[in-house]
Amino acid sequence: MNDMPLWAQIALLCTLLFLSGFFSIVETSMMAINKYRLQALAEQGVRSAILAKKLLDRTDQLLSTLLLSNNLLNTAATTVVTSLTISWYGNNQIALSIATGLVAFAIIIFSEITPKVIGAAYPEKVALPASYPIAFFVRLFTPFVWIINIFVNGLIRRLGLSSTQTEQNSLNLNELRSLVLESGHFLPHKPRAILMNLFELERLTVDDVMTPRMRMEHLDVSRDEDELGHQISTAHHNKLPVIEDDWRKVVGILHVRRALSLFYAEEFDKAELTRLLHPAYFIPSGTPVTLQLQNFQENKERLGLVVDEYGEVLGLITPEDILEELIGEFTSHAPTAQGLNSGNSQSEQVITVDGYTDLRDLNRRYKLDLPQDGPRTLNGLLLEILQDIPETGLSVKVGGTIIEIVQVADRSVKTAKIFKKDPDASA
């Protein structure tokens, strides 16, 4: 080393620092590169992406090569500086200490921190072209890496760990949700909203989506024929559940369009009406909506009655109700179909709604934060809070939302007024 001219030793030192920085930048960029973006590029046939993916499939071998090369270069740089110092100042301890500090500073700045910051900022631009020389070094150092890994794996086993047990690279539901939220530049708002609703759909059951029994349009065959005829001719739905006296006896499902033919034939009577009925399709309470959507498709049904463990009808659900959870509400609804439609917004902060409106619909439409871990309707929430028969004019504060009871009927809240903000605080 002492026989080398000064300029050659300085050039050698700069080369060692540069190579050390190269391995540092490659190490960071390889670990920071987007694995799914890399997979997509590899499937498109990009050679550098295919090579980088192969290197990352053997992360232990890749890291061993990079770290081995980096440490050898840093050690060589320290040796060169020490040789230069001894040739100039002899075995002067102060000079050696200063030289060691300077070379450590140079390694940290030029070979570690700066390259790694650049590699983390531009992982794809660095990792793909660098995969070609790194693949060469991986093959070159394979025998040395194999020997080193023998000691490493032995130490890991001593610690009671396994070098082959690695965390799966797949995304869980929360990570996938975050990925969709951050894809604003690539996905339009509506498709992104549908994907987010799809994640939410996994948590919902038919009880969350169904139309409650109190808001269901139905026929009661115990009524007289004139009343039945008028109800059929003015029905808002094509399919109606048919009961006899009460909901404990569901007779079937009526296709209203087929029943209208009885009026033209002047043969309308209960016997003819009963012959047009189809068997009702019952759905157990608590069925996940994703499973129920599949059941609708397999059973070729378009309407189901949700029942509890005692067979009591709780509500009605259709495939359209589930699809609305994905794409939003359709433009047309029957007057009795949605409690939100029966209400009206008096201002931006005051809303009048039906007592049987679903809490999820209220929260979603008006950006409220009403609790959903208990009752499913506004009436149920008020009854749970009051623990008594509600009275007209009574107001309740739930979180930051004021709810005023406007109308009470049949021991339940018929209409309520919601203040999105505390009126006293606004004043």
Automatic annotation (TrEMBL):
A Pfam cross-reference name: CBS
UniProt domain CBS: residue ranges: 273-332
Membrane topology per the entry is:
Multi-pass membrane protein
Under the heading SUPFAM superfamilies, the entry gives: CBS-domain pair, FAD-binding/transporter-associated domain-like
- Keyword entries, A-Z: CBS domain, Cell membrane, Membrane, Repeat, Transmembrane, Transmembrane helix
The keyword Hydrolase appears for this protein: no
- TM ranges are 6-26, 94-114, 134-156
The listed locations are: Cell membrane
Per UniProt, residues of the CNNM transmembrane domain are 2-196
Q: What family does the Swiss-Prot or TrEMBL record give for this protein?
A: Belongs to the UPF0053 family.
* Protein name according to UniProt: Magnesium and cobalt efflux protein CorC
The source organism is Limnobacter litoralis
Q: Lineage of the native species?
A: Bacteria, Pseudomonadati, Pseudomonadota, Betaproteobacteria, Burkholderiales
